[in-house]
Amino acid sequence: MNKKAYLQIPFAWLFSIIVGIFILSLAIYGVVKVIHTGEETIDAKTGKEIGILLNPLEMSFQSAQSSPLVLPVETRIYNKCNNNYGFGRQIIQISQKSFNKWTETDVDVGFSNKYIFSENPCEGKKFYVFSKPFEFPFKVADLIYLTSSSQNYCFVDGPENIEREISTLNQENFLTNSTENCPDSSIKICFDDSNCDVNVDYNPETFDSYSHGFVKKGSEEIKFKGDALMYAGIFADKEIYECQVERLMQRIEKLSLIYYDKSKLVSQKGCHSNLNLLGLNNAAGNSGGNLDSVIDIVEDIKEKNDLADCRLW
User: Fold this and answer.
1) Cβ contacts of residue 30 below 8 Å, gap of 6+?
2) Ramachandran region of residue 193, left (φ > 0), alpha (ψ -120 to 50) or beta?
Protein backbone atom coordinates (compact mmCIF):
# COMPACT_ATOMS: atom_id res chain seq x y z
CA MET A 1 0.00 0.00 0.00
CA ASN A 2 1.26 3.50 -0.87
CA LYS A 3 2.00 5.25 2.42
CA LYS A 4 1.56 8.65 0.81
CA ALA A 5 -2.15 7.96 0.66
CA TYR A 6 -2.40 8.39 4.42
CA LEU A 7 -1.07 11.98 4.15
CA GLN A 8 -3.28 13.15 1.37
CA ILE A 9 -6.00 15.65 2.37
CA PRO A 10 -8.65 16.55 -0.19
CA PHE A 11 -8.11 20.07 -1.49
CA ALA A 12 -11.71 21.04 -0.65
CA TRP A 13 -11.13 20.14 3.01
CA LEU A 14 -7.82 21.99 3.13
CA PHE A 15 -9.39 25.05 1.56
CA SER A 16 -12.28 24.93 4.05
CA ILE A 17 -9.85 24.72 7.00
CA ILE A 18 -7.83 27.72 5.79
CA VAL A 19 -10.97 29.78 5.14
CA GLY A 20 -12.34 28.79 8.56
CA ILE A 21 -9.16 29.89 10.33
CA PHE A 22 -9.23 33.19 8.41
CA ILE A 23 -12.89 33.82 9.29
CA LEU A 24 -12.27 32.92 12.97
CA SER A 25 -9.30 35.32 13.09
CA LEU A 26 -11.42 38.09 11.63
CA ALA A 27 -14.19 37.36 14.12
CA ILE A 28 -11.78 37.48 17.08
CA TYR A 29 -10.22 40.72 15.78
CA GLY A 30 -13.69 42.19 15.30
CA VAL A 31 -14.82 41.28 18.82
CA VAL A 32 -11.65 42.78 20.34
CA LYS A 33 -12.08 45.90 18.22
CA VAL A 34 -15.72 46.26 19.22
CA ILE A 35 -14.87 45.79 22.91
CA HIS A 36 -12.08 48.36 22.67
CA THR A 37 -14.31 50.81 20.82
CA GLY A 38 -17.06 50.22 23.35
CA GLU A 39 -14.65 50.86 26.21
CA GLU A 40 -13.52 54.13 24.60
CA THR A 41 -17.15 55.17 24.13
CA ILE A 42 -17.98 54.40 27.76
CA ASP A 43 -14.87 56.25 28.99
CA ALA A 44 -15.71 59.32 26.90
CA LYS A 45 -19.35 59.23 28.00
CA THR A 46 -18.29 58.94 31.65
CA GLY A 47 -15.98 61.93 31.24
CA LYS A 48 -18.83 64.04 29.86
CA GLU A 49 -21.18 62.89 32.61
CA ILE A 50 -18.63 63.86 35.27
CA GLY A 51 -18.46 67.33 33.73
CA ILE A 52 -22.24 67.62 33.80
CA LEU A 53 -22.42 66.40 37.40
CA LEU A 54 -20.00 69.14 38.43
CA ASN A 55 -22.28 71.89 37.08
CA PRO A 56 -24.42 72.29 40.25
CA LEU A 57 -21.24 73.08 42.21
CA GLU A 58 -20.73 76.11 39.97
CA MET A 59 -24.24 77.50 40.36
CA SER A 60 -24.26 78.45 44.01
CA PHE A 61 -23.21 81.53 45.95
CA GLN A 62 -22.21 79.48 48.98
CA SER A 63 -18.62 79.93 50.13
CA ALA A 64 -17.96 76.19 49.87
CA GLN A 65 -20.05 73.13 49.13
CA SER A 66 -19.38 69.43 48.68
CA SER A 67 -21.00 66.58 46.80
CA PRO A 68 -20.21 62.84 46.37
CA LEU A 69 -19.57 61.39 42.93
CA VAL A 70 -20.20 57.64 42.69
CA LEU A 71 -19.27 55.65 39.57
CA PRO A 72 -20.35 52.07 38.80
CA VAL A 73 -16.80 50.65 38.53
CA GLU A 74 -13.28 51.46 39.70
CA THR A 75 -12.18 54.51 37.74
CA ARG A 76 -9.07 56.55 37.16
CA ILE A 77 -9.71 60.21 36.41
CA TYR A 78 -6.80 61.85 34.62
CA ASN A 79 -6.75 65.61 35.11
CA LYS A 80 -5.24 67.52 32.20
CA CYS A 81 -4.99 71.22 31.50
CA ASN A 82 -4.41 73.19 28.32
CA ASN A 83 -3.88 76.94 28.59
CA ASN A 84 -4.18 77.74 24.88
CA TYR A 85 -7.06 79.32 22.96
CA GLY A 86 -8.77 81.99 25.03
CA PHE A 87 -9.83 80.44 28.33
CA GLY A 88 -7.83 77.26 27.76
CA ARG A 89 -9.35 73.84 28.37
CA GLN A 90 -10.02 71.63 31.36
CA ILE A 91 -9.49 68.11 30.01
CA ILE A 92 -10.66 64.87 31.61
CA GLN A 93 -9.54 61.42 30.50
CA ILE A 94 -11.17 58.34 32.01
CA SER A 95 -9.85 54.80 32.45
CA GLN A 96 -12.12 52.18 34.01
CA LYS A 97 -11.55 48.65 35.25
CA SER A 98 -13.00 46.01 32.93
CA PHE A 99 -12.38 42.27 33.34
CA ASN A 100 -9.79 43.12 36.01
CA LYS A 101 -7.83 45.29 33.57
CA TRP A 102 -7.70 49.04 33.09
CA THR A 103 -9.13 50.26 29.81
CA GLU A 104 -6.81 52.24 27.56
CA THR A 105 -8.18 55.25 25.75
CA ASP A 106 -6.87 58.44 24.20
CA VAL A 107 -10.31 60.07 24.15
CA ASP A 108 -10.23 63.45 25.90
CA VAL A 109 -13.29 65.34 27.12
CA GLY A 110 -12.73 69.09 27.39
CA PHE A 111 -14.45 72.04 29.09
CA SER A 112 -13.56 75.71 28.79
CA ASN A 113 -15.39 76.81 31.96
CA LYS A 114 -14.14 74.31 34.55
CA TYR A 115 -11.09 74.40 36.81
CA ILE A 116 -10.45 71.08 38.55
CA PHE A 117 -7.64 70.54 41.05
CA SER A 118 -6.70 66.98 41.95
CA GLU A 119 -4.01 64.34 42.06
CA ASN A 120 -3.24 62.85 38.67
CA PRO A 121 -4.68 60.31 38.32
CA CYS A 122 -7.35 60.29 41.02
CA GLU A 123 -8.48 56.68 41.49
CA GLY A 124 -11.52 55.08 43.09
CA LYS A 125 -15.17 54.23 42.74
CA LYS A 126 -16.46 56.99 44.98
CA PHE A 127 -15.13 60.53 44.84
CA TYR A 128 -15.80 63.77 46.67
CA VAL A 129 -15.86 67.12 44.97
CA PHE A 130 -16.15 70.49 46.65
CA SER A 131 -15.88 73.99 45.26
CA LYS A 132 -15.02 77.51 46.32
CA PRO A 133 -15.37 80.78 44.42
CA PHE A 134 -12.15 82.48 43.37
CA GLU A 135 -12.48 86.28 43.49
CA PHE A 136 -9.71 88.47 42.11
CA PRO A 137 -11.17 91.14 42.57
CA PHE A 138 -14.50 90.08 41.04
CA LYS A 139 -15.66 86.48 40.94
CA VAL A 140 -13.54 84.77 38.31
CA ALA A 141 -14.69 81.14 38.59
CA ASP A 142 -15.63 78.35 40.97
CA LEU A 143 -12.61 76.17 41.68
CA ILE A 144 -13.39 72.45 41.98
CA TYR A 145 -11.36 70.09 44.19
CA LEU A 146 -11.57 66.36 43.45
CA THR A 147 -10.48 63.66 45.91
CA SER A 148 -10.97 59.90 46.14
CA SER A 149 -12.98 58.57 49.11
CA SER A 150 -10.27 55.93 49.59
CA GLN A 151 -7.70 58.62 50.44
CA ASN A 152 -8.01 60.38 53.79
CA TYR A 153 -6.74 63.92 54.35
CA CYS A 154 -5.94 64.91 57.93
CA PHE A 155 -5.85 68.66 58.63
CA VAL A 156 -3.63 69.31 61.64
CA ASP A 157 -3.70 72.48 63.76
CA GLY A 158 -5.53 74.43 61.10
CA PRO A 159 -6.81 77.96 61.68
CA GLU A 160 -10.30 78.13 63.14
CA ASN A 161 -11.93 79.24 59.87
CA ILE A 162 -10.31 76.38 57.93
CA GLU A 163 -11.28 73.73 60.50
CA ARG A 164 -14.82 75.09 60.60
CA GLU A 165 -15.08 74.97 56.81
CA ILE A 166 -13.66 71.44 56.62
CA SER A 167 -16.17 70.26 59.24
CA THR A 168 -19.05 71.97 57.43
CA LEU A 169 -18.21 70.15 54.19
CA ASN A 170 -18.90 66.86 56.01
CA GLN A 171 -16.67 64.81 53.71
CA GLU A 172 -15.86 61.41 55.14
CA ASN A 173 -12.27 61.57 53.87
CA PHE A 174 -11.54 64.95 55.54
CA LEU A 175 -10.40 64.81 59.16
CA THR A 176 -9.37 67.51 61.62
CA ASN A 177 -7.03 66.11 64.23
CA SER A 178 -3.72 66.33 65.97
CA THR A 179 -0.83 64.64 64.21
CA GLU A 180 -0.86 61.70 66.64
CA ASN A 181 -4.51 60.90 65.89
CA CYS A 182 -4.25 60.95 62.09
CA PRO A 183 -4.61 57.51 60.46
CA ASP A 184 -1.27 56.14 59.25
CA SER A 185 -2.41 56.01 55.63
CA SER A 186 -3.77 59.56 55.61
CA ILE A 187 -2.13 62.55 53.97
CA LYS A 188 -1.22 64.90 56.82
CA ILE A 189 -1.69 68.62 56.15
CA CYS A 190 -0.10 70.86 58.76
CA PHE A 191 -0.32 74.61 59.32
CA ASP A 192 2.46 74.98 61.87
CA ASP A 193 5.59 74.13 59.87
CA SER A 194 5.59 70.53 61.05
CA ASN A 195 7.17 67.73 59.10
CA CYS A 196 3.97 66.58 57.37
CA ASP A 197 3.13 65.36 53.87
CA VAL A 198 1.82 68.83 53.08
CA ASN A 199 2.79 72.00 54.94
CA VAL A 200 0.85 75.24 54.57
CA ASP A 201 2.82 78.38 55.40
CA TYR A 202 0.95 81.66 55.93
CA ASN A 203 -0.07 84.05 58.68
CA PRO A 204 -3.71 83.29 59.62
CA GLU A 205 -4.02 86.51 61.65
CA THR A 206 -3.53 88.76 58.62
CA PHE A 207 -4.75 86.39 55.93
CA ASP A 208 -7.43 87.52 53.48
CA SER A 209 -8.38 86.92 49.85
CA TYR A 210 -5.21 88.58 48.58
CA SER A 211 -2.68 87.48 51.18
CA HIS A 212 -0.09 85.02 49.93
CA GLY A 213 1.28 81.84 51.37
CA PHE A 214 3.03 78.66 50.33
CA VAL A 215 2.01 75.02 50.08
CA LYS A 216 5.06 72.79 50.48
CA LYS A 217 5.12 69.17 49.32
CA GLY A 218 8.56 67.69 49.75
CA SER A 219 10.90 69.78 47.59
CA GLU A 220 8.00 71.41 45.72
CA GLU A 221 6.63 74.80 46.72
CA ILE A 222 3.38 76.25 45.41
CA LYS A 223 2.61 79.92 45.96
CA PHE A 224 -1.04 80.88 46.47
CA LYS A 225 -3.23 83.87 47.23
CA GLY A 226 -6.44 83.39 49.22
CA ASP A 227 -7.93 80.19 50.60
CA ALA A 228 -9.49 79.10 47.29
CA LEU A 229 -6.02 78.74 45.77
CA MET A 230 -4.67 77.38 49.06
CA TYR A 231 -6.96 74.34 48.70
CA ALA A 232 -5.95 74.11 45.03
CA GLY A 233 -2.29 73.91 46.05
CA ILE A 234 -3.06 71.24 48.66
CA PHE A 235 -4.97 68.87 46.39
CA ALA A 236 -3.43 69.43 42.95
CA ASP A 237 -0.18 68.43 41.35
CA LYS A 238 2.04 71.48 40.81
CA GLU A 239 1.86 71.18 37.01
CA ILE A 240 -1.94 71.21 37.06
CA TYR A 241 -2.01 74.06 39.58
CA GLU A 242 0.23 76.34 37.52
CA CYS A 243 -1.66 75.63 34.29
CA GLN A 244 -5.04 76.31 35.91
CA VAL A 245 -3.81 79.56 37.47
CA GLU A 246 -2.67 80.70 34.04
CA ARG A 247 -6.14 79.88 32.69
CA LEU A 248 -7.67 81.91 35.53
CA MET A 249 -5.50 84.87 34.57
CA GLN A 250 -6.75 84.52 30.99
CA ARG A 251 -10.28 84.65 32.34
CA ILE A 252 -9.49 87.74 34.42
CA GLU A 253 -8.16 89.39 31.26
CA LYS A 254 -11.47 88.80 29.44
CA LEU A 255 -13.75 89.61 32.37
CA SER A 256 -11.98 92.91 33.05
CA LEU A 257 -13.03 94.10 29.57
CA ILE A 258 -16.64 93.09 30.23
CA TYR A 259 -16.65 95.08 33.48
CA TYR A 260 -14.95 97.98 31.69
CA ASP A 261 -17.82 98.08 29.17
CA LYS A 262 -20.26 97.93 32.08
CA SER A 263 -18.48 100.84 33.78
CA LYS A 264 -18.94 102.97 30.66
CA LEU A 265 -22.68 102.23 30.64
CA VAL A 266 -22.93 103.10 34.34
CA SER A 267 -20.98 106.33 33.85
CA GLN A 268 -23.55 107.49 31.28
CA LYS A 269 -26.00 107.63 34.17
CA GLY A 270 -23.66 109.84 36.18
CA CYS A 271 -22.10 107.07 38.28
CA HIS A 272 -18.35 106.97 37.71
CA SER A 273 -16.46 104.00 39.11
CA ASN A 274 -12.92 105.11 38.15
CA LEU A 275 -11.58 101.56 38.23
CA ASN A 276 -8.36 100.68 36.42
CA LEU A 277 -9.91 97.78 34.54
CA LEU A 278 -7.91 98.36 31.35
CA GLY A 279 -4.76 98.25 33.46
CA LEU A 280 -5.92 94.94 34.92
CA ASN A 281 -6.68 93.64 31.44
CA ASN A 282 -3.18 94.48 30.26
CA ALA A 283 -1.43 93.19 33.38
CA ALA A 284 -3.38 89.90 33.40
CA GLY A 285 -2.70 89.36 29.71
CA ASN A 286 1.05 89.77 30.23
CA SER A 287 1.31 88.03 33.60
CA GLY A 288 2.23 84.56 32.38
CA GLY A 289 0.19 83.19 35.27
CA ASN A 290 2.05 85.25 37.89
CA LEU A 291 -0.50 86.52 40.42
CA ASP A 292 2.01 88.89 42.01
CA SER A 293 2.17 90.92 38.80
CA VAL A 294 -1.47 92.03 39.14
CA ILE A 295 -2.03 92.05 42.90
CA ASP A 296 -1.54 95.83 43.37
CA ILE A 297 -4.08 96.63 40.65
CA VAL A 298 -6.52 94.04 41.99
CA GLU A 299 -6.38 95.43 45.54
CA ASP A 300 -6.84 99.00 44.29
CA ILE A 301 -9.85 98.01 42.17
CA LYS A 302 -11.47 96.08 45.03
CA GLU A 303 -11.04 98.96 47.48
CA LYS A 304 -12.54 101.51 45.08
CA ASN A 305 -15.42 99.26 44.05
CA ASP A 306 -16.30 98.50 47.70
CA LEU A 307 -16.50 102.25 48.43
CA ALA A 308 -18.31 103.19 45.21
CA ASP A 309 -21.95 104.33 45.25
CA CYS A 310 -22.56 102.20 42.15
CA ARG A 311 -20.69 98.95 42.48
CA LEU A 312 -19.95 97.00 39.31
CA TRP A 313 -20.17 93.65 41.13
Assistant:
1) none
2) left
